[in-house]
Design a protein that fits this description.
The chain has about 140 residues and is an alpha+beta fold. The protein has a domain of about 60 residues. The protein is built from 1 helix and 8 strands. The protein has a 5-stranded antiparallel β-sheet, with no helix packed on it. Strands 1-2-3 form a 3-stranded antiparallel β-sheet, with no helix packed on it. Strand 2 and strand 3 form a beta hairpin. The longest helix is centred in the first third of the chain and has 27 residues. The radius of gyration is 34 Å and the shape is elongated.
Length: about 140
């Protein structure tokens, strides 16, 4: 007669063999490739925006070179730019100008935003640097490059 430990060990071996046989059989059933037919979904609405399409402008259009471009330099009208709020000291600083939320690198009235700080924002327009003060602060300073 077998001891209790030997019977227990044999039972474990048979159990492992049965489980292994079951997994091998299941793996053989899975090997047959099944193709899942999924419907193609297209957004088709007459007058509504497509929620899956991006409307962000990747690159600003570059002006075409002109022969007399050096003679005529457009001026930046700072009276058109109203700084309404500044969010600074965060990973992505933002500024609200003329009811538009902008960040560094965005264009407003043809001027590029170079930096956003507590005291105000720095703009670049045709080689000139402009400082726009934060709301409730002082004047506009113009620096030449």
């Amino acid at each position: 007669m077998m001891s209790r430990e030997r019977r227990y060990i044999l039972f474990i071996f048979f159990l492992i063999a049965a489980i292994d046989h079951k997994f091998v059989a299941a793996a053989e059933e899975i090997t047959t490739e099944e193709i899942i037919a999924r419907p193609v979904v297209e957004y088709a609405s007459s007058n509504l925006r497509d929620p899956f399409r991006t409307y962000l402008i990747k690159d600003a259009p570059k002006p075409l070179p002109q022969e007399n471009a050096d003679l005529i330099k457009p001026e930046l009208d700072l009276g058109k730019l109203e700084v309404q709020g500044i969010i600074w000291g965060v990973k992505i600083p933002q500024v609200i100008i003329n009811n538009k939320v902008l960040t560094i690198g965005d264009l407003i009235e043809g001027a590029e935003i170079l930096s956003i700080e507590k005291k105000g924002i720095v703009l670049s327009f045709n080689g000139a640097i402009f400082d726009l003060a934060a709301p409730g602060q002082g004047s506009v300073i113009k620096k030449e490059k």
